[in-house]
């Protein structure tokens, strides 16, 4: 009888929906002050980072998530000099931001120093040299406090945060009060982008994030891309008071990527068109939701 020397990891998207990955081994696991941190080696996705039971990134397809998160906002702005990353633990979001030579300073605020340390040790493929770049300023702290206390202005703010889990560290950063402060910091010409959970697995959460941003910003658009290691379409919401993301043409995306000499594996004009072409039934549902997330009544992932 052969002994199975690997095991199944089951990930719950909602209390009644889960998916599984075969894992060869756990490379690192500990509970930090804020969350359960796991780095594991999987059969199909290589190394994966798991926080509080949710896959954050995988070696096979993290570039899809991080390019989808970063480049539409950077190109919509046009020539961002100062960028603020909220969360972003592994450093891959910073990696994509630093590809723009216009960037003079990139500040990353992550609440959990352990995630950064574990990622620098075990996930170098995501953050090779990023934290040593002289343009980077790493702040360990709650992005909520940072945003409400900073007096700095930023051209682009990127919220690469954990999902709004009840009792988790990130849910307050999906509220209208938080977004109002973000809008003050980016001003009339800046751009804000946030990961916005899955329009297929958690459509209500995704729609509320979109609706909440529409309370604050003049131009707001949602888009998504299927990410195999998440086994879901993953959603993003981009917002600005001065630049309409829906007017971003694929041809302009290609011109800008070429102009800035930005090398990408996933994102280009055609991928941009694909992401922003949201199917009718999803558009109708997202636009139908009229709830917003507030500090007193925050939106949570289904528990
Ligand atoms: N890049 C990831 C992915 O591929 O899905 C996104 C998740 S990233 C690992 C989430 C990060 O948000 C974690 O490093 C976590 O520590 C951080 N975070 C959660 N709540 C936070 C808060 N209130 N302030 C700052 N960082 C926070």
Describe the secondary structure blueprint for this structure.
Blueprint: E1 7-14, E2 17-31, E3 36-42, E4 46-51, E5 54-58, H1 62-77, E6 82-87, H2 92-97, E7 105-110, H3 113-122, H4 124-127, E8 136-140, H5 143-149, E9 156-160, H6 176-186, E10 191-195, H7 203-214, E11 219-227, E12 232-240, H8 250-259, H9 269-276, H10 280-288
Parallel strand pairs: 6-7, 6-9, 7-8, 9-10
Antiparallel strand pairs: 1-2, 2-3, 3-4, 4-5, 10-12, 11-12
The protein binds S-adenosylmethionine (SAM).
Instruction: Kindly report the average pLDDT value.
Output: 95
- Just name the CATH architecture of the largest domain: 3-Layer(aba) Sandwich
CATH superfamily membership of the largest domain, which one?
Vaccinia Virus protein VP39
The CATH topology of the largest domain is Rossmann fold
Give the overall silhouette: globular
The total domain count is 2
Query: Oligomeric state of the chains?
Result: single chain
Structural class: alpha/beta
- Proportion of residues in β-strands: 25-35%
Unreliable spans are none
User: Helicity level, as a percent range?
Assistant: 25-40%
Strand order of the largest sheet: 8-7-6-9-10-12-11
Along the chain, the helix and strand elements come as: EEEEEHEHEHHEHEHEHEEHHH
CATH class label of the largest domain? Alpha Beta
Span from first to last CA?
Answer: 40 Å
Bound molecule types: S-adenosylmethionine
Count of helical stretches = 10
β-strand number: 12
- Main beta sheet, described? 7 strands, mixed
Instruction: Tell me the Rg in angstroms.
Output: 18 Å
